[in-house]
Amino acid sequence: MRVLRYAVACLSLALAPPLWNLAATRWTHRQNPVPGTLHTVGGYPMHLVCTGRGAPTVVLEAAASATWLAWRRVQPRLSEQTQVCSYDRAGHGWSDPRPGVRDADHVVAELHGLLDQAKVARPLVLVGHSAGGLYVRAYASRFPAEVVGVALLDASSPQQADVLPGWRAQYERNVRTAAARLRWERVRVWSGWERLTGACALSDPDEAPEVVGQYAALMCRPAFVGGEENEYADFEATARQTARTRLEGLPLLVVSRDPAGEPDASPEDREFERVWSEEQEKMKTLSARSWRVVARGAGHDVHHDRLDLVVAQLRLLVDHVRGGGAPPFGTTEVS
């Protein structure tokens, strides 16, 4: 009997942190309900947040691993001008994970289904950051009648695996080790270790309380472990699908980070930034009606580092689509 009591006590101790993590996850979710709306697309819930009124509708496509919260500062500002929608791709934010391939073809089909289910009005101006830039290019190519403008914010290039110094080697290494990293992440989350060590909270005094609450509700959910990385292995398929896309006739805005980088950057980092900037300039060739703005002092998250600049350029794009004055097509400006 003593052995049985000891075994029960050990089991209870082992189960306590995982059960506490599940309870804390549910409590945090109740305290921070899902904003916007959920729509069933292909049998799985997808999350959409639309604000503002007017046409065209601006659809925001976040970077790899990012949620709708990536646009928390852009969306309120831009929705003063027109309707703006952000959303979560499958396995990100409040959109349930789903099995199968996670390349551009699937992402675009799911986004199209989500917009249809939510009855989001067309036409669209698509805004993509980082890898999100590949998805908006694919969407514009697949549904050209719906799209009247595109903005690429320090967007990924379909060629970057082969032209950026060291990128392919790092990518292939990460793909090889992904399964082991996912297993370890599952252990840390399911065991409650991540929550015990404070990894489920965002401590940023500059963030609004509702953003901090949303971040806490989204983190450390056992069912979502690995969801934010589910597109990484299919990056090359996405690159192939978008390599030949063109945005013929569409007004195209390209906003890029500052290639100067850090003052103490290594020669390798400087070369990386030089090639990245070249790829950004090449994106102007996707449309004859394109212009590029290099955001002085900005890093990869240009819409955070230079919020005012990005919002002003997006407003210029929307105004032009509505019949306003032409942007400085054909130019590259450092601002």
Provide an overview of this structure:
- With 335 residues, this protein is of the alpha/beta class.
- The chain has a single domain, classed as Alpha/Beta hydrolase fold, catalytic domain (Rossmann fold).
- The protein has twelve helices and nine strands.
- It has helices spanning 2-31, 74-78, 104-117, 132-142, 160-163, 167-190, 193-196, 209-218, 235-242, 267-282, 302-305, 307-321, and strands spanning 37-41, 44-51, 57-61, 84-88, 124-129, 147-153, 252-256, 290-294, 332-334.
- α4 (132-142) links the parallel β5 and β6 (147-153).
- α1 (2-31) crosses α8 and α3 crosses α4 (132-142).
- It starts with a helix and ends with a strand.
- Can you say what the CATH homologous superfamily is? Alpha/Beta hydrolase fold, catalytic domain
Rg for CA atoms: 22 Å
Mean pLDDT: 87
Q: Show unreliable segments.
A: 8-13
Can you tell me the CATH class? Alpha Beta
The fraction of residues in strands falls at: 5-15%
Broad structural category: alpha/beta
Helix content: 40-55%
Number of separate structural domains: 1
β-strand number: 9
